Amino acid sequence: MGRDAVAARLFGFTPDKSALVADEAQALREAVELRINGGTRAGAAARLNALGFVGTLGSTFTGKTVARLFRTPAIAGLKPGPDGKLIDAGHPGAITLEQFAQLQAMDAAEDEKRDASRKANPQPDYDYAFSSTDLVVCGLCGANQQGLRTNAGNPGYCCSAGPRADRPGDCGRVRISAEILEDHLGEEIVARLMEPGTQKALEKARGELEKQLAAARADLETVGQGLDNLGGMVLRHEITAASAAKARQEGAQQQKALRRRIRILERAAATPVSGSVQELVTWWNSAPSQAKAGLAMLMLHRVDVHPGGQGARKLKPGRVVLWWRDRPAPPPIRRVA
Ligand SMILES: [Zn+2]
């Protein structure tokens, strides 16, 4: 592991921590003061990035990496003693002991608040079976239909390309009641399971998805190795911290997409396909919704939901289109302007 070959330097300090790196230590103090004055860790990270700093392995600062930095006793010249209590580490600190204690108190208060809110809202949200499968898509734009309650609080599926706080979005126009969509898919799937040849088709589909799963895992491994090497390359001055930061950001995006794909494929690959038709139908009727989505993925290329009939209790013909795997794959959906 290239990253572990040489220990990473602590931001604000020389490699052996015997001295401060003046500009970094100053920036660290500013970020800590922002946080102590009520700012978020993400805000402190944004401040460090805005000042032009990157982490010592070339990563852009995030709320997470700042949280880790702020929890490191060495930034205040401390280290854990034999009994776990913090003691003087024998090197200078970038922030005062009092500032470090304030950071710790803020973390503890936040943990407590989160626990309390979890206890106050124990009931889980509606269990959307098809929300994170990419199987059910918007008929207008092709985006995943995700589980979302309507303003009235009813569970539904909605085009995920709608505007959100963090991005503009240009569709979000197709919605359907979760109950109506899930009942309809359930009826169609059970009817299909009864047809001859279903089991063979399921086994074939599972074999194909298992191959895709293996390929996605190999890709994830490759991306991870590339990321591991970046830290070492920076330490050996083979690339600049800034270009490592860019590469790291791109790699993290790839990892996120691959992990999502792997989770989806794993669900499908875990579906039992070897029972009799009756056993499969029985399984369907009692399976958890996530497992049902796995079986649906083995049977269907895609499900398109078209606009219309909002609030209607019955589906209009053509509103939901099922593309079965024993037929040719559907063409990609072209965005309707
Ligand atoms: Zn859409």
Automatic annotation (TrEMBL):
Keywords: DNA recombination, DNA-binding. This is Uncharacterized protein. It holds the Pfam family Recombinase. Residues 23-105 form the Recombinase domain. Residues 134-187 form the Recombinase zinc beta ribbon domain. One of its GO terms (molecular function) is DNA strand exchange activity. The keyword DNA damage does not apply.
